[in-house]
Input
Amino acid sequence: MFLVMNNYKMGRKAMRRLGLLLTLLVWCNSFYAQERTQDFNFNWKFTLVEDTKTPTNLPLDDTKWRDVRLPHDWSVEASFSEDLDGATGYLPGGVGIYQKHFDTPANATSKNVFVLFDGVYNNATFWLNGKLLGENPYGYSPTYFDLTEVLKTDGTKNILTVHVDHSRYVDSRWYTGSGIYRHVKLITVDKLHIPIWGGTFVTTPEVSAEVATVQIQTKIKNGYRKNQNITLITKIIDNEGKTVTLQEKETKIGSGKEIEVLQSLQVANPKLWDTEHPNLYKVITNVSVKGKVIDTYTTLFGIRSYYSIKTKDSS
Output
């Protein structure tokens, strides 16, 4: 079995790997490259602790803690020891606690506010102002939490606490590090918005040198107490910043509901994506109410197609 993709051939294993890569390419860029995000990596406090028990009486007094900027790995800061395991790079694990003091975003009472952690290794527990937000035991998966109902409204600072338990540190065949080792973002959106994850799903079902069909599935959530009439404005931009196609679609969404809108756009003379020419396009999705854009969502994607051919020497 061989994969043919824009005139390039590759074996079965490469096909599977590339298929996974392409899926992740669309999925990841759908929620990381947002104009509505704020860098949340600065001004964190950190300390290592001996006790593995989940802390109480939160938030904690962090006046004597270290100042750190994320991403941060406390294991790599420690000393190497032959007594430790080679899989951990001969470095220790342990338990660490992070805290961040921050102001409530402007107009937060009319918005939804989320915090997104790209990766915390591992067994992480999260609180805002002493209220439990949730847990994430897996160190490689991102996670996000809705802060809207817990944010302070009295003008005092919020305190975000993250407890990371990597005391059982021999848990991998390779070095993992310990702590909030990936980026953190604060995301502020209107109550009517495209979801943080899975907001758009882009496919290219028909591709030729002359024209490509791009299908875009967009999810929209309405957090208001009344129905909304919206216009979904979607445009595709090439790698030179030129708008190559645009489509508007009007629809209604009920109070507290989530809908999915399907759009099909045509791109003439597309610049195809392949392993030697990784041309990328950008889908910019705007949600408009009464002529005002209230949310913008950006997705990177490549125009490509592939099919398989069975040959006599297939294994």
Q: What stands out?
A: The CA atoms of residues 26 and 133 lie 28 Å apart. The longest strand covers residues 211-222.
